[in-house]
Amino acid sequence: MFKQLQRLLVQSYVNSQSLLGRSPCSCVLSQQISSSTCHMAAQPAVTPDNILQSHIPDIKIPTNVPFHQYLFEKCDLFKDQTAVDEFLTGRKYTYQQLKEKSIKVARGLYNMGYRKGDVVLAFSPNHIDYTVLMLACASIGVWFSAANPAYTPEELSCQISHSECKAIFTIPFFAGTVKSALDIKSHPHKVKDLFVFGEAQGYQPFDTLLSGDGTTCPDVDIDPVKDVFILPYSSGTTGMPKGVMLTHYNCLANVLQALTSIHVSTEDRALGLLPLYHIYGMTAVQFSVLFSGAAITFLPKFEPETFLKCLQGKKITVAQLVPPLIIFLTKHPVVSAFNLTSLQKVVSGAAPLGAEVTIEFTKRFTHGVTINQGYGLTETSPVTNVDVTGTPGSIGNLVANTQGKIVDLVTNKTLGVGEVGEYCVKGPQIMSGYFKDKQATDQMIEPDGWLHTGDIGYASPEGLVFIKDRLKELIKYKGSQVPPAELEALLLGHPDVQDVAVLGVPDEQCGELPKAFVVKKPGSKVREEELVKYVEDKVAHTKRLRGGVLFINEIPKNPSGKILRRIMRDQYIKS
């Protein structure tokens, strides 16, 4: 059991020994959030034309304040309070130190020639300098991208090439992986600088960027509504991974929206276990804490005993987790050996949390801890819904400033309460688009701003949304995104494979398991285990064919050649 759990967050695999301008309107905004959520009457959950809206009145979100500027004001306010720390090393930064170091790194990058619109990429597990780097990039208009630390050189090479990043930041443990990725000739790149958090041959130490002035940022004109802050990668609803352009305004809006539903105070201590390369950890977890003046404790990976020691030793009050971790807390007997009575709030995201688990969790933690489920996409910065009602199986109501609707899968007509269709959302957190992919952007976002989530569900009269199925092809393995097109392309490169379709098959513990349906070439004697091993050697372990391989005679497709995944999945489940 422990070995399985240790693989839950492979995005953060790493040897822990290797880690080492104020805005006047943002003060008004903090007051606005407090008053709007505490003193104003709730608005109707469903309008007469079946548009879903938040029960929380709209909040004022400034359009002229860059993300880092808003957070730096918080740093001035909370000064000597701990902002970020590391459980394994004991390293920590106060809010004032976080601001000063971010400005120093911003100036260091600026002096090296980095300018607005350039891209840098982090390939690293969680640590406190990750936050510094993000804010430094924001300060000079540089786009911040991040890659899954579990990536193979081939996978990393694809993102390096597509993102057009000019610098890579990693840790000594991954220095070789980065070099191998850069050596892949089929993926040309624009990388000119390599930085390491620590020391590694051929890399510039991150600390060399800290030698400059830490009082004032370089003077860079940033338009929060138009200028990109982060470039996380998502598989969207279909196909290969895509760069998601999220602006300063998108991210600022979404953190403030989330905080109207998930309340965090200066007295809270939060857990930073979810990987920072993933949008959930990057913005929803990390910055909701820092905007609130609380402290966040980072862990680089999941290990059961370390995880529990951190919850107990740091007296964690807020834990934003994924379903497998909540299942662990709910079911594993070792949890009873630890005093977790400090834990007050758990938020689940990244994958659906079953109603049964929610009920079991509340039975085990009888001291009053609440458990809520959130919902969102990388393309929505990410939060659109949070369940604050405790309704099992629901993703909850919309967050502030957000609208939703359920539409017919064929006609796109807006449906009524209780009718099942595709869930669509609209709000200030919607991405500006996919990087270098207008066609995919236009397919996902309608001209009037409605984004198609690719999830099928229905709404209750109270505006609660229930997700029942997935229209999109994306496979969710323990909350990690597994794009089937990527695995299909890989398998089609095998000499014995004529055709293939990869689907997510249901699994109680993991959500879905990637399973390949393969048509062998005539005369081939290839075995299932050969293809499983072939894929295993080339992908991050979240993408392995844990559902196995099934040999079939033909892949069902429509007249245009599109794989009929839903039919295949339904037939497999029935059989």
CATH superfamily of the largest domain: ANL, N-terminal domain
User: Low-confidence stretches at least 5 residues in length (pLDDT < 50)?
Assistant: 1-41
User: For the CA atoms, what is the radius of gyration?
Assistant: 23 Å
- Number of continuous helical runs: 16
CATH topology of the largest domain: Rossmann fold
Overview of this protein structure:
- Strand 6 (167-170), helix 7 and strand 7 form a beta-alpha-beta unit.
- The two termini are 29 Å apart.
- Strands 3-2-13-12-14-15-16-17-18 form a 9-stranded mixed beta sheet, with helices on both faces. Strands 1-19-20-22-23 form a 5-stranded antiparallel beta sheet, with no helix packed on it. A 5-stranded parallel beta sheet has the order 5-4-6-7-8, with helices on one face.
- The longest helix is centred in the first third of the chain and has 17 residues, at 95-111.
- By secondary structure, it is of the alpha/beta class.
- It has 2 domains: 2-457, ANL, N-terminal domain (Rossmann fold, 3-Layer(aba) Sandwich), CATH 3.40.50.12780; 476-574, GMP Synthetase, Chain A, domain 3 (2-Layer Sandwich), CATH 3.30.300.
- Helix 6 (153-163) crosses helix 7 (175-182) and helix 11 packs across helix 12 (355-364).
- Residues 1-41 have low confidence and may be disordered.
- The chain is built from 16 helices and 28 strands.
Could you give a short description of this structure?
Belongs to the ATP-dependent AMP-binding enzyme family. This protein has 575 residues and is of the alpha/beta class.
